Every structure is written in structure tokens, then in C-alpha cells.
TrEMBL record:
It comes from the Bacteria. The lineage of its organism: Bacteria, Bacillati, Bacillota, Bacilli, Bacillales. It comes from Gracilibacillus marinus. The chain crosses the membrane at residues 21-42, 48-68, 89-115, 140-162, 169-187, 207-224. The keyword Membrane applies. This is Uncharacterized protein. Keywords: Membrane, Transmembrane, Transmembrane helix.
């Protein structure tokens, strides 16, 4: 089991590091491009606002779907068990979250330093700190990490559903699950429930995230424990 977990984790890292690195390099290229434009044309009424949390969360969601689709059948074909896949997955999830959070905040610090050093007034760059300046920086960094982990887990579950049941059954299931959102009485209750996951709300609790992660990992395990390696979307 331990050998399988190490192999799985190595495979996850080998599969993903180029993709993650490519995203941040492309993102850096866009930032430098717009930074150069605003620096050259400071005398004109040109102003740009850059954000890093939203693009990186969108990337996390897309990457999570592709990650499951590519790694699950490959790992099982190599002879690893589904249990070892899940253990390695949890370890990778932690590493991915830490990596994304560190790079995101390095970008935030570096861009802030450049803007202040060169006195660039028409370029603003924000991260998760755009939410509330009264919240400690350490808490915001931790919260951003929570979001990366949440997005990765949720969209992995979506990918697992699509992989196991195909488009039709998965869409019907997701519609049924999301239906209470459109019923006002349920929506109000859901808002009060999700308030504990919003850092700007007084009900916010870090402990709630850990419970949520355990539930999501449990759901993912229920999906993959007997899952075939045949993709129901492409039948491969």
C-alpha cells in the first residue's frame, strides 16, 4: 500500500507540475504586459486592475476536472488500488493547495512591491485581500488555501460523476442537488449555512472547512471505490 501511494503521488506530481507552471507563467506574462502598458502610458487615462485569486480558482476548477479524467484510469491500469489512489490524492491535494497559495501570494507581494517602487498609479493588483482590509493577512492567506482545496475537491467530484455516469445522468443529478437553491425558503437556509464558509461573515469558522473536506472526500470515495476505468463520456 505504501509503495503504491508513493508511486501514485509521484505520478500526480509528474502529470501536473508542467500544467501548473504553464498557467502561472502565462498569467505572469499577461501581468507584465499590462504593467508595461500602464507604465509607458501613465500620462494618459489608462488604468488596469489585476486580480490573481479569481483566475487561479478558475484554473483550479478546470484543472481538477482534467486531473481526475487523466490520472484515475492510468493509476488503476498500473495496478494500484482505489484506496491507495485516494490516500495519494489527499496528499497531493494538500501539496497542490500549498503550492497554489504560495505562488499566488508571492505574485501579490512582488506586484505590490513593483507598483510601489516605480510609483505606478494607474495599475492596481489585488488578491484575496480585496475582500476586507480589516482581516489579518495570515487569515486571508489561509482562507485562500481553503478555497483552492474546496474548488479542487468539488470539481473532482463533478469529474468523477461525469466519468462514471456520463453527461445525462450527471446533469440530472446535479440539477436535483442544486434545485433547493431556487426555492426561496431553502435558499435562505443555505445562505445561513454557507455563511460559516465566508470569511467576511460573523458565522465564519475555519473548523467548518475541515468538516466539509471530510464530507467531500467521503463522497469522492463512494464514487470511485467501485468505479470502472471505462470513461462513460468517451467510452474509452
Amino acid at each position: 500500500m505504501f509503495t503504491q501511494i508513493k508511486f501514485n503521488l509521484y505520478y500526480f506530481l509528474k502529470y501536473s507540475y508542467k500544467t501548473v507552471l504553464t498557467f502561472w507563467l502565462i498569467f505572469l506574462g499577461f501581468l507584465l504586459f499590462f504593467l508595461c502598458i500602464t507604465t509607458l502610458f501613465q500620462s494618459f487615462e489608462i488604468e488596469f486592475v489585476g486580480v490573481n485569486t479569481l483566475p487561479s480558482l478558475i484554473f483550479t476548477a478546470i484543472f481538477a476536472v482534467l486531473f481526475f479524467k487523466e490520472t484515475f484510469p492510468a493509476i488503476i491500469k498500473f495496478g494500484s488500488s482505489r484506496t491507495s489512489y485516494l490516500f495519494a490524492y489527499v496528499l497531493y491535494l494538500i501539496l497542490f493547495t500549498i503550492t497554489m497559495s504560495i505562488i499566488s501570494n508571492v505574485f501579490l507581494f512582488a506586484m505590490g512591491y513593483i507598483i510601489d517602487f516605480f510609483h505606478i498609479d494607474n495599475f492596481s493588483y489585488y488578491g484575496i485581500n480585496i475582500m476586507d482590509h480589516q482581516i489579518a493577512t495570515s487569515q486571508l492567506i489561509l482562507y485562500e488555501s481553503f478555497l483552492y482545496m474546496f474548488f479542487f475537491l468539488v470539481f473532482n467530484i463533478v469529474a468523477a460523476l461525469l466519468y462514471k455516469f456520463g453527461y445525462k445522468v450527471s446533469i440530472v443529478f446535479l440539477i436535483i442537488v442544486s434545485f433547493p437553491i431556487f426555492v426561496r425558503s431553502f435558499a435562505d437556509e443555505l445562505f445561513h449555512f454557507f455563511a460559516q464558509f465566508i470569511i467576511t461573515e460573523k458565522e465564519y469558522s475555519q473548523f467548518s472547512f475541515f468538516i466539509l473536506y471530510i464530507i467531500l472526500i467521503g463522497i469522492l470515495w463512494l464514487i470511485v471505490r467501485n468505479q470502472s476505468i471505462i470513461d462513460k463520456i468517451t467510452n474509452k
